[in-house]
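Entry 14. Structure prediction run on the chain below.
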Amino acid sequence: MVLKLTSILLLGLLTGCQTSKKNFSPSGLNNFKSFLRKTINVKCSVPGGCKDLPIGMVVSLLNHKKTKSEEDEFEYDRCTGFFIGPDTVATNAHCLPTDIQKNHSDCKGRIFFNLPNEKNKIYECQKIITVSNLKKNIVTEPQDYTFFKVDSKYSGSPYTISREGFPDNQWYNTYTINPKQNNELSGELVKKRCKSVLKSAFMPEYQNTFSPIVAFGDCEIIQGNSGSPIIKNGKVRGLIQTNGDRNILSLLVKDLSKIQVAHLSGGSSFTCIPTPNEPFSKRSECTVKNPGSFFKGNELNGFKIIEPKKIRKKIQQSTLRFRKDNSEMLIWMLGPDLKFKTHSSAQGVIFSLKPECIRGERLPFWETIRRKSVGKLYFNQPIWKFEMSFNRYLQGRFQIEKIEEQKSLLNINLEMLEKTGVTSYSLKEPNTEELFYSDSISFCEESSLSGL
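Output returned:
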């Protein structure tokens, strides 16, 4: 018999190893079950013992085929799982073979579960109850969970689900199966400590106590730990689903080599997971808004989403003098989209304000401008620099400072403005007429003027 282990990928890639349905012969499945009973060996390495811990190893059979010598060859994965009911096990959806990653799938002979204190007892999956949707885009981490029924009941006490969420900077326990690499189906159950880390560039979806996704620091997660329960006061609040590999983190934060990054990991919160046979009321926080992305290298755009109130307040304070001194004709209000122009340079991310609207009651002044300079307005426009740094949990800190004043030339099509109320404008360097940016502009509404 030939056995092949295919490790589950962590790192938020969330993938099983098979993409099409496989045919498993009854004899092949029986051979695999026989192999499991003979070789699976999960030891307890938790202080105080594992007698009351309903946590064990999940083994998923991915593929089976015969070799040229007619031996059975199996391909399988390992994860961690735990009982949440007498015959209901929870783990990550990505731990399942992809051909049965759907609700109500038959999982007989494909998924098995074993506890450290029950060496000779193998629980066999009967039916997949629910599976989370693992579709992912570049900036949003999906929740990763599944529940399945097994063929016999657990004699101990399963975990009770808590929907209290994850407040920031709190310590939690997790119990993980660490596989032994020298024996493919052996491992040990160990206890680890993990600290919740709010608003990290690693997992910016974690915005508040009741976010569906949570990030942890000082929490080393390895292959085989996927699906581990996250415990507080004896109740399970979520489950581990991913770790923070440096190759992935280097895409999120520039100059990662300058930071002593903590062991980072992420998981799904039961606050936002409907569990079998339990009442569930979805909170508004369970809807994940696009958290922005650091992938494009513009930290300002990413941090706008992570700390919108802080960044808005700081920019308002830093630009107040300029906006007041230059409000005779134009309003430079900071609306909900924080209207300013940014670009990256050797100095980092720099930005300047964009005019939002023209004060209609000042048209006589504009007439004077038109006669003298054909719709041109000169002024000194400050340039601000945005600098961002990260702590070991990749939580961002920032500062804003004015680095220079740039003489600017504003061109406005006054005739079109008077006819239609909307016109185009361009902001240029006065001597070379290098274009800074251009846009459309209209008369200010009363709400804009009330902010003066």
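The chain has two domains: 2-286, 299-449.
Filed with the rest of this week's runs.
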